[in-house]
Amino acid sequence: MAEYLKKHPDQKGFFGEYGGSFIPPELQAEMDKITDAYYSISKSHDFISELRSIRKHFQGRPTPTYFCKNLSSRTNGRIYLKREDLNHTGAHKLNHCMGEGLLAKYLGKKKVIAETGAGQHGVALATAAAYFGLECEIHMGEVDIAKEHPNVVRMKLLGAKVVPVTHGLKTLKEAVDSAFEAYLKDPVTAIYCIGSVVGPHPFPMMVRDFQHVVGVEAREQFLEMTGELPDTVTACVGGGSNAMGIFSGFIEDDVRLVGVEPSGRSLKMGDHAASMSYGKPGVLHGFRSYLLQDEKGDPAPVYSIASGLDYPGSGPEHCMLKDTGRIEYTTASDADCLDAFYSLSRIEGIIPALESAHAVSYAMKYAAENPRKSVLVNLSGRGDKDIDFVVDTYGVRE
To answer: Does the reported pTM lie above 0.85?
Structure first.
């Protein structure tokens, strides 16, 4: 693992001034046990061997890196995709869910609890729970349950209990609130498997480490395909797990890294979820990060066409890397996202998740403006979950 990853976070879970663990003492005791277990178990031969076997024989890793010949010709650039949509369950989420499930097994836990927005984390954790023989409880906002119906069905088929969240905006933030409350009631026999590089330490570190495989594979594959590294690597950013996964493989290289946030319908409060671009430091869900806040300093309402991106904060490592200038952050609107969604579907025969389409949108513009440079997109998920919503709401574009 790169020297950078060994040095971050510090022992208290901080990435610079971000991260940490701001939780009740009784929950901190459980987090300390998880941290100690992760540091010891994750370095053991048995754990690493089992996880590698799972990735190869159950998940289907490595996923390929693919040159978009048609889209590149259309934009006059060079666009590549890291095909996490081909990972079992259809997104990058299973990379850390199988790791968290394996950790839960080694800790003797009986139940996994989590939140989900787009449903990909919920499906992945339900899959891991079925694999390891664990109970599974997924908290999901009512708005997202209606929007991502195919994934709700998949979670139930896999044996998970789906808990509808009916308060507030009924989306991802409220789902996290609800899952945390459920975990607080039973932290001894259950483990909260957070769905991104957010939350109290050690989760931002753990999820990044489990997702690091994406960056390692992509770097090796790109070098083998082209004999050089990409000029730019890009990924969508909500909480930021898929982005930290692929960025971590290039963090010590002379490669431009660009995170793409959702600017939604407009930059009016409540119409977007671009916390890295428009937020300020604050504490939510047990960690410190850039946070979209209202006049009172409370988490602001957020929105994105992509259910997996409508969170008012971002991972603490992203925040540190923004401050140091190592990662650039930009935005894509709902309209940009939809254009990329339809374009990749029609031109390449690949239907992307709406979350991933934000990064595809950036790559299309970058390729048009930089015809001699290459851009690698983390295609973090496939769009099966979104097609009913997109067609019902926006139609099938001719």
So the answer is: yes
